[in-house]
Every structure is written in C-alpha cells, then in structure tokens.
C-alpha cells in the first residue's frame, strides 16, 4: 500500500515517460521474424516486454537487452522457430499471449502458452483460435473455456483465407497481421466486429517500417502476400501516450503546467488524443517539436464523450471526473470489461467507495461531482487502476493505493516519476 499526498501549489514540470508498450512488443516480434540484426531504441522495460523477450528467447531468438540504455538488440531468425516445442508463460500480458499464439504456428511441435489467473479467467482468446483453425492451425484452449492455457500443435503455416471476430480485442487482428508475411500462401482476413483501428494503424506502421506491405480495405478486409520478409533495421520507440495521460491529467486537476517530452500529437498512438479531451474540459494544450504541454483551468468542465478509440485513458478521465463542475459521461467502452479486469465495474466500485455518485451502464458510466471520502483503492491487479486513481490523491486527502506494484506491467517506476510533480 502507498499513500498519495495532495499537492498544494500549481504544477510546473517536464516529465519523460518510458517507451510505448504496444510499439515495443510489436517491434520485438517483428525483429524476431526479420532476417538479421535489429536495434530497438527507447524501448520499454516492464513486465509485459520482459515476458515477450523471455518467450522469444525460449523460441530460439537471440536478444541482448540493455535496460539502462532502453535498448534491445535482436538477431532475427527469418521466420524460423528452431525449437521443437516450448512452454511459454506470459504473466498478465494480453499483447504477448495473443501474438505468441499466432507466432508459434510458424513452427513445428507442441507449444503451450499460459499466464496469470486474470488471463485464465477474464481475457478471451477463442476468436483468435477460431481464425487460426480456419487457416489449418491446430490451436485450442486447454480447458475449452476460450481462455489460457492454449495448446498449439504446430506444423508450419500454409495460410489462406480466414474470418476473424475482432470486436473483443484488436490484438487478435494484430496477432494475425504480424505473422502473415511468413505464411506460405499469405493470408486474407475478413474482419467482423469493430476493432480499435488506431491499434491496427500502429501494427501496420511497424510492419511498414520493417518493409512489409499490407492491403487494407477499410479495416474490413486485409491481404498480406506470402513470400514477403521483414528487413532488419534500427527502430526508435515512441514514449507511451497512455502513460503520459496521467501527467496531463495531473495538470488538469491541480492547475499549472505539465509537459511530456518527446511525444508527438501526430503519433499513431490514439491515446495521445486524450489531450483533446482535456481541452474540451477547459485545459490549454501546447504542442511543440519536443513534446506536448497541458495547462489546467480554474475549474474542469463536465463532458459527455465516446472513449472507444482511446479507452485506455477512460480510467484517467474517470479519476478526474469527480472534480468537474458537472457530470462526466464515458461511452462506448464495453470492450474494457475483458481487459486486465472488468474496468467499467472496477471504476464504478472504487469511485463509490470514495463517495462519488456513479451510474454504471453496459458500455460506460456517468460520474457526478462530489467531495472525496478517504479510502484505500483496490487495483484488481490492473496497472491502469493504480495509476489513474493515484491522481485523486494529488487533490484529495486520505487516498491510499493497494498493490501499487502492479504498475510494473507497463510503467515500473511510475510512482517515482509521479514524485517529480511535487518538486
């Protein structure tokens, strides 16, 4: 447990956040598939990326990691998986589990992918397995419940046509896209449901940077020609826009100015657009060549907003919502019920613990302004719950965060960086 002390004066800080988890894990996998040596700079070192790195090493990929320099050197295997099987443990990393289930289909042998309890009971994978089985891959949930552990009896990947339901997670589509160039006959994917297109844009951007072309017809149909290969390269990783949201929100809440260095508003990371949400709530946003700065208003305004495209920041918005001058309504985030925890219900539960009036909907919630009752916040093994609700403690007394160590999933030194706001 950690206590958060209120900040009494307006902020004036420049913050650096670690590299993007989404970009780092995509680039690690693509570099592993490439022929030759790639260098990833500005990379994130966290639970999720360590699980990916460890799993790739078990699959025969040589990776040298330099945490102090935030760098990975990856010696790619040209799509070959030289081991005749492996048991891979991915913790609570959805990106890692979905990507690896597809990746091991290129090999030959029995591969088992397993993870922490939240992955086993809360994060589905059956839609991806269905799509792989249409491509001839023998992939199944070991307990037939649509979750981990997953067993893949691999015998190479011929490819072909498949239909994928990506409504529960865009990671299913990412997992197929990343390995598609190494299918013997390429892959054609018909998409049903509505994937979060910004995350698919990130996937396509990484593939393009490593030299692979994808035909994308309005996110409903994708064709990736077989015989393409990723080319090794030096690949810089952007700062994580989702993690930057907490520091932008701190400025909105406390007042003053916070700048996040090296972040570009034109990034393919959709969560960078959270600053536009804050702008609608009365904040000033300044974009420069070396970062983005947010200056907080005298009083935050209420807002009614669709957060589907930037749903990882919905918790950030929920945390500052009680301090607005009117109701905040967050819509179209039903898919977050199948993430690290049921995030909608978790938000509602913890806000009510703080005395905040909240109405829960199937796909969102309504939060009314209210004074804060001191409480210890449960985090449900969810890094974003811990980071988002710590913001409330910057404004109101008596806020404690249970299991603060869960932030190691994507931002291990979050609470150390948060301390820089007090300076």
Describe this structure in words.
The protein is of the alpha/beta class and 423 residues long. It has two domains: 2-18 and 239-422, UDP-n-acetylglucosamine1-carboxyvinyl-transferase, Chain, CATH 3.65.10.10; 21-232, Alpha-beta prism (UDP-n-acetylglucosamine1-carboxyvinyl-transferase, Chain). It has 13 helices and 23 strands. The protein has helices spanning 21-33, 47-58, 94-103, 117-121, 126-134, 171-179, 197-209, 241-254, 274-280, 314-320, 343-353, 383-395, 414-419, and strands spanning 2-4, 11-15, 35-41, 62-66, 71-77, 85-89, 108-114, 138-141, 150-155, 160-165, 187-192, 215-217, 221-224, 234-236, 256-261, 284-288, 291-295, 303-306, 328-331, 358-361, 364-367, 375-377, 399-401. The strands form six sheets. Strands 2-15-17-16 form a four-stranded mixed sheet, with helices on one face. Strands 4-5-3-14 form a four-stranded mixed sheet, with helices on one face. Helix 1 (21-33) packs parallel to helix 3 and helix 10 runs parallel beside helix 12. It is globular. The protein starts with a strand and ends with a helix.
